[in-house]
Each structure stands twice: as C-alpha cells, then as structure tokens.
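Justification of resources, computational component.

The compute hours requested in this renewal are based largely on the per-chain cost of generating structure records like the one below. Each record pairs the submitted sequence with a full structure-token output. That output is archived, and it is also reused by downstream analysis tasks.
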Amino acid sequence: MKETSVTSKKQLGDPIWPDQLGQWKFGSYADFQQIKNQLPIAINHEIITLGSISSVPPAQATLIPQQIHYIWVGEVIPKNLLENITKNVENSPQYKSIIHVDADSSTIFKEIKRQLNNKITTKIFEKIKSKLGYKMSNIEIRDLHEDNFFLILETQIQEKCINIFAQVSEKITQQQQMYYVTP
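The structure output for this chain reads:
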C-alpha cells in the first residue's frame, strides 16, 4: 500500500472565518473564496527560543547602579512635578532616587529640600515601611554645586567650551590676517 501526503480540499472540511465583527462564520470552499479578500489580515505568532547567556560575566563587567537621577534647576518645584517624583519614588523603592538641585540661592535650595522632604517623606514613608519594611533611605537630595560628579562634569564642559572658543578665536584671527594683507 502506497502512502501519500497530499491533501485535498475535501479532506480539510468546510472553512471557518471571522467576519468584520469578530463573529465566526462557516461555509463552503466556494463561499470562502468569494470573501477571503475582505477578511482581516492573518497574524502568525512564532515563539523563538534563544540560546542561554553565559552565567559568568566578563571580568570587566560591573553592576549598573540602581539609581534614578533627577535634576531640578530654578525655583521651588511645581506641584505636578513634585507629585510625579513622589509617585516614581513610591513605585520604585528598590532604587535610590537622587535629586540634584541647582537652586538660584541657598535659601531656595533649603526650601526645595524642605518641600521634597515634606512631600515624599510624609506620603511615602509609611507606605514603604508598612508594605516592604524598607527604611526611608532611598531618597537623597543634593546641591548640584556641591556634588562631586557635577563638579567634574562642569570642569570638563568648561574645558571643552574654552577649547571651542579658542579654535573659533584662532579662525577669526586667521581670517582677519587674510583680509588685512597688503602688497
């Protein structure tokens, strides 16, 4: 007895398809041929299994710090932004939130610090403590001008600006010399 893997339209049975409203319809193969171009596009899902990643990290690999940095420049923080920071701190207690404040004066910095401490500490501290047993150590408010990272960055930016201005100044001087050359 010879086996074949050929299937005919009759072996498949009557086609079934969803209409535009998502209701399932059925009919003959001829019915299906008439409406098949009006049907929604078919979607195929394919699951791909990737090979495992080595559990041994490269020697030079370091952990990414679990920190969220905010930078605030100016006056006191508006209520809607304060609510957003509060919500983010509440939703991510496993991360340390560091708020870098570039205030116009030390008085404004103190006011922003008071504003953040009052809002975040009172609203979130009890939730975090009761939910997760965390201490309120995941928030830090820093003066941007006393922050070591910013001081290094500021120095690098100043050096870069000085180099750019020096190059521009040199080009201007060269152009002026070209214009003032006399025979």
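The longest helix spans residues 148-179. The helical segments are 9-12, 29-35, 79-91, 106-132, 148-179.
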